[in-house]
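Below is the record:
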Amino acid sequence: MKNIFRFLLAALIMVGAVIPGKAEMCKYEQTGNKGQRAQTAAGCTPSSSFEWLDINNVRTRINSGGDMWWDLPAGTGSKYFIPANGSATSLFAGSLWIAGVDVNNQLKCAALRFRQVGNDYYTGPLTVDGMASITPETCAKWDKIFKITRAEVDEFLVNFEAGKTC
């Protein structure tokens, strides 16, 4: 009996040493660098356009703001239908998370979390003056999705390899 008690005590100590005893909220959620984001986005409103992707018996909603498969809040929920003409949905939402290092070897990340903690994606071309900024007018002008076909991509590649420009 003493051996079992010693074994359980030793196991409890080992588990206590391995498993952290304190949970914390995300440290960066409220202290993120929102000033830089606001300056770069220059007052752009979050993207609101969307397009339907219909391929391989799937019909799904793709939003221009980096998120997909859902109707934005105050909408009607999941929009990932299989089969395409059915009403059953298999996924609720997803988004693009893109990360990389800059010229100073600093990690940069753009990620969308259901548009609850800000918005990292805005539509339109950025300036090339080193600030990578954009105006609200440019955001509004480019708030759309461009659908292309495989034939258009192949045609572009042929023209590109031939040295032709737009």
